[in-house]
TrEMBL record:
Descriptive protein name: Adenine deaminase
The keyword Transcription regulation belongs to this UniProt entry's keyword annotation: no
Residues the record marks as active site: E202 (proton donor)
Function: Catalyzes the hydrolytic deamination of adenine to hypoxanthine. Plays an important role in the purine salvage pathway and in nitrogen catabolism.
Enzyme Commission numbers on file: 3.5.4.2
InterPro entries in the record: A_deaminase_dom, ADE, Ado/ade_deaminase, Metal_Hydrolase
UniProt keyword list: Hydrolase, Metal-binding, Nucleotide metabolism, Zinc
Cofactor note: Binds 1 zinc ion per subunit.
Gene3D superfamilies: Metal-dependent hydrolases
GO BP terms: adenine catabolic process; hypoxanthine salvage; nucleotide metabolic process
Length: 343
């Protein structure tokens, strides 16, 4: 396929998004609308002033603003509206499957009931599937700057709503909060039949990726870009085809890589790792999933072969059934064949 057709392929190919925090999809306009609806006073005078504060130096500088933004979410309809706005964008980007993180502790700590959070998000997932045909499921994420005891309490509070989420994750401040801190709660979740994923190797060392694999027994690594510092880990990730949910624009905005041109995704892919492309917190990092693909490919010069591989990896790394995955891969193959014919 000619290089000129690669952007069209990136835009239209069926893909899965496996690393997106729903609270990170809150656009400044929606933050202000929800603040007004709920009578919440924001420490920013306008949408523009809020957006101007999105100049991050590292993960923590982002998390401080991200948690402040989430403070406008109070009612079930707020969670519903936020998720529907994201799902409309994802469907427009030809996302056929999204596995959405949510951070219940960010809300329950402010007195919002677990049922309010989960019912609002879950209803949006169902309505989006009916309206746009997108398959959407939820992953409950524990905040790693809080204790394992707090994670256990959160799990207990969420279990009455077990049918509304497919797995659990681990996010927030990585440095100083190694995976081993959550070994027992992950073991309990595994026994409950939940899927397991964790952020590791975003800013933290390769030892945290090993910890997520060995102590937490995860099925995917979220980020994992620091794995490149450990050749043995690279060989292990390649040999096991462990999926890595990489987020290029996030890594650029949080200064993990100085520029998208320096991003190591092309090298990870060339080394045989099972890499996928995702948006992380699209409202804060300047783009949804197609923006991540388009900007990364423009910066690194990757082509159609890599585009196909990344989309296929994403579909096959979902928690959907093998038959469903195969049907999506067939859609991907049809899309590539159609574009090749037209070019
Ligand atoms: N990139 C990220 N890393 C860790 N926790 C997060 N929560 C939302 N986005 C995150
Ligand atoms: Zn993340």
């Amino acid at each position: 396929m000619a290089a000129a057709h690669v952007p069209a392929l990136l835009r239209t190919m069926p893909k899965a998004e496996l690393h997106m925090h729903i609270e990170g999809s809150l656009e400044p306009e929606l933050i202000f609308a929800l603040a007004q609806r709920n009578g919440v006073t924001l420490p920013y005078a306008s949408v523009e002033a809020l957006r101007a504060a999105y100049a991050f130096t590292d993960l923590q500088s982002f998390l401080d603003i991200y948690y402040a933004g989430a403070s406008v979410l109070l009612q079930e309809v707020d969670f519903y509206d936020m998720a529907m706005a994201y799902l409309a964008r994802a469907a427009a980007d030809h996302v056929v499957r999204t596995e959405i993180f949510f951070d219940p502790q960010t809300h329950t700590e402010r007195g919002v009931p677990m049922a309010t959070v989960i019912h609002g998000l879950s209803r949006a997932c169902k309505d989006a599937e009916a309206r746009w045909g997108i398959s959407a499921v939820l992953i409950l994420s524990f905040l790693r700057h809080l204790s394992e005891e707090a994670a256990f309490e959160t799990l207990e509070a969420a279990l009455p709503y077990r049918e509304h989420f497919v797995g659990i994750g681990l996010d927030s401040s990585e440095r100083g909060n190694p995976p081993e801190k959550f070994e027992r709660v992950f073991a309990r979740c595994k026994a409950l039949g939940l899927h397991l994923v964790a952020h590791a190797g975003e800013e933290g060392p390769p030892a945290y990726v090993w910890g997520a694999l060995n102590a937490l027994q995860v099925e995917r690594i979220d980020h994992g870009v620091q794995s490149e510092q450990d050749p043995e880990l690279m060989r292990h990730l390649a040999a096991t085809r462990m999926p890595l949910t990489v987020c290029p624009l996030s890594n650029q905005k949080l200064c993990v890589f100085p520029d998208l041109r320096d991003h190591n995704l092309p090298r990870l892919l060339a080394a045989g790792l099972n890499v996928t492309v995702n948006s992380d917190d699209p409202a804060y990092f300047g783009g949804y999933v197609n923006d991540n693909y388009l900007q990364l490919f423009a910066a690194t010069g990757m082509g159609a072969v890599q585009a196909y591989q990344l989309a296929r990896n994403s579909l096959e790394a979902t928690f959907a059934s093998p038959a469903q995955q195969a049907a999506w891969v067939q859609q991907l193959d049809d899309c590539v064949a159609q574009l090749a014919q037209a070019s």
